[in-house]
Amino acid sequence: MIRKADPKDYPAAAALAARMWEHESEELAQGFAEADAAGEGAVFVAEESGQIVGFAQCGLRHDYVEGTESSPVGY
Q: Smallest Cα–Cα separation from 28: which of 48, 57, 53?
């Protein structure tokens, strides 16, 4: 099942993200929470048998994003 993440899901999603990106999972979880609180992003999780097995993070970027000419940009 895919659903919008609850704040309690951020550590599990961040642990998956840390496997791809060179950041500490605590730092990533904090970033997920901050983007959600600011209304600038959302995290979605894929859950299977009660475990988070995947995630997608989407949000607005106000800095330069390759190939774009406007801001903010969905990313």
A: 57
